[in-house]
Amino acid sequence: MSRAQCPRCLRPQTHCLCELIPQLESRTRVLLLQHPSEVNHALNTARLAALGLTNAELRVGEVFEDLATLLNPPGYRARLLFPGEGAQLITAHAPLGDDLPLLLVVPDGTWRKARKLLHLNPLLAQLPRITLPEGAVSRYRLRKAPGPGALSTLEAIVQALEVLEPATSFAPLLRPFEALIEGQIEAMGADTYLKNHGRPQDL
To answer: Of 1, 25, 134, 195, which has fewest CB within 10 angstroms of its CB?
Structure first.
């Protein structure tokens, strides 16, 4: 028999994260496009981001029929948070004059799945791209990163927002993420964690 699930955070009721999820306002609007393979992932960080930001929306799918509408909300200019040719380093966005806030479009999935989303949705691939500064260290201690600077979706959003809106701290978004990781490390036991993933200082 399956365990009762929280309908909001999709975690088992016994491990619900909702009390740790903040409600943060942002000038930047965040649109998360999640590959279906990520929905039931134990560390569904895109959902945590969407729940923690009042100006965010999460869509799940491979092909988004209403993408033209999603990418053009009145009063915003869309940018794709994804590395690639021509991607510009993200910089602080000054809210002056007619300077429109960003619609930050974030594909969520493995690198392979995220590239598939771009391939299946040409409008997405055509967006101007922005990328994060190099050197960020992920707190995702249960995964071997594919390369230096590889972050979870939630960590990438937090870093992007803190560059775009430096007067606001978005660190509270990471609280449920860190609790989730701590819970999984505790469940597997310190010896198993150290053998497969970590270093003693990570415990």
So the answer is: 1
- CA dist 42 and 45 (Å) reads 9
Write down the pLDDT at residue 165.
Answer: 94
Sheet of 56-60: strand order equals: 56-60, 29-34, 102-108, 77-81, 129-131, 88-89
pTM comes to 0.84
List of residues 6+ apart from 19 with CB closer than 8 A: none
* pLDDT of res. 139: 58
pLDDT tens, 31-65? 999 999 998 887 789 999 999 999 999 999 999 99
Strand residue runs (E) in the chain: 29-34, 56-60, 77-81, 88-89, 102-108, 129-131
CA atoms within 13 A on the CB side of 34: 23
| Mean residue pLDDT across the chain | 85
Strand pairing class (56-60; 29-34): parallel
Of 124, 148, 128, residue with least CA distance to 138: 148
CA atoms in the 13 A half-sphere facing the CB of 110: 7
Domain boundaries, the chain: 23-202
| b/e code 2-30 from CB counts within 10 Å (16+ = b) | eeeeeeebbbeeeebbeebbeebebebbb
Looking up tokens 């009762």, which residue turns up?
4
